[in-house]
Write a structure and sequence with these properties.
Layout (H helix, E strand, L loop, with lengths): L3 H15 L2 E8 L5 E2 L5 H8 L4 E7 L2 E6 L6 H10 L7 E7 L4 E7 L8 E9 L14 H10 L2 E8 L5 E6 H4 L3 H4 L10 H7 L6 H6 L9 H11 L12 H20 L40 E5 L2 E5 L6
Parallel strand pairs: 2-9
Antiparallel strand pairs: 1-7, 3-4, 4-5, 5-9, 6-8, 7-8, 10-11
The chain binds a DNA duplex through loops.
DNA sequence: AGCGGGACCTGTGGGC
DNA sequence: TGCCCACAGGTCCCGC
């Protein structure tokens, strides 16, 4: 379920507890969870070890952890030299796709991996002078002393249904990751003109909204909610929708996404934010999950159909 | 070209 | 209580 607002909420929650932390080591519990050119268990584990987290961001439904780059870090250079040319140089971050049931939680250092833990990262709080410019004189002994007193924590990637993945990337490898290169623009940043242009395809409106190449980050929940809000039938072909209605949809989509982010996302079954808290936007659903109930606007019973491969709930009276 | 359907998964919940 | 099965859904892929 994590769609744009949920992933955004997770990123915001993780950011303060991850930035500046160093990955002490990682354990891959499910071999298929890492993808891409550094997917093999021991390669993945070696490749993330020693990285310092620079930032946590979102792109579409992807949650991205950026690492500090090696040329800013003498320590990195030494570590990569020690590893030799094992093909793990140049890595700039890792991208998580949570799919339906993926979760990213931070825990204290004593937490144990459990049934659904797919990858676990042990983290060390590296806050200290050795990471400031011109302070590379820190000795190994000082480093060890700091490590022993600094706080440790863990980041777990849990995923009951195992559809989720994590992928290490370098600047170069991103160019060859087609999902990344073909990802459409962010719905919260797209202009009205670009949005209308992109939504004028031959396919049905729901299929267009769900297509990550056209716009990134919209899933079943927010597609249904935005279409209801704009009064558009999910099966209407994009090129048959008048521009005025596409303009309304652009505003409706942004409004529903922003409101959901403000309420920390929607919690249906699995979804929890980085602190294990449920979101509240599910209380604002007007069509999603309301099959058979009446339309909040006209009291007509809501219709349910399989559209673009998804269960779709809509109002036949309000959406045309 | 676009759409439907299958595959990938497992926890949940309704029906009996 | 317990069993069976449909269902949930993001993405890719295949075939019509």
């Amino acid at each position: 379920m994590p769609e744009l607002p949920e992933v955004e909420t997770i990123a915001r929650g993780l950011r303060p507890s991850l930035i500046g932390r160093k990955i002490i080591d990682a354990t891959v519990y499910l071999a298929k969870t890492p993808e891409g050119e550094w997917a093999e268990k021991s390669t993945f584990e070696a490749a993330v070890t020693g990285r310092v987290i620079k930032d946590v961001r979102r792109r579409g439904k992807l949650l991205i952890i950026y690492f500090q780059e090696k040329y800013f870090q003498e320590e990195y250079f030494q570590e990569e030299q020690r590893r030799g040319s094992s093909g793990v140089t140049g890595i700039t971050g890792m991208a998580f796709h949570l799919k339906m049931t993926g979760r990213l939680f931070t825990y204290d250092e004593h937490a144990q991996a459990h049934k659904h833990t797919r990858v676990a990262f042990r983290l060390q709080n590296t806050a200290g002078p050795q990471f400031h410019d011109g302070a590379r004189g820190t000795t190994e002994a000082q480093g060890k002393e700091q490590a022993s007193v600094s706080e440790q924590s863990q980041l777990f990637f849990d995923d009951a249904r195992t559809f989720g993945y994590v992928r290490l990337f370098s600047r170069e490898s991103l160019k060859h990751w087609s999902f990344w290169t073909q990802l459409g623009p962010e719905p919260l940043g797209i202009s009205v003109d670009d949005f209308c242009h992109r939504m004028q395809g031959r396919r049905g409106m729901k299929a267009l909204l769900l297509d990550q190449h056209i716009i990134a980050g919209v899933g079943n929940i927010y597609a249904d909610e935005a279409l209801f809000s704009a009064g558009i039938h999910p099966n209407t072909k994009g090129h048959d929708v008048p521009r005025a209605k596409l303009v309304r949809l652009h505003a409706a989509l942004q409004a529903v996404l922003l409101q959901s982010i403000a309420e920390c996302g929607s919690s249906i079954r699995d979804y929890r934010d980085a602190h294990g808290n449920a979101g509240a936007f599910q209380n604002n659903f007007r069509v999603y999950g309301r099959s058979g109930q009446t339309c909040v606007a006209c009291q007509t019973p809501l219709a349910t159909a399989k559209i673009a491969g998804r269960t779709t709930v809509f109002c036949e009276h309000c959406q045309r």
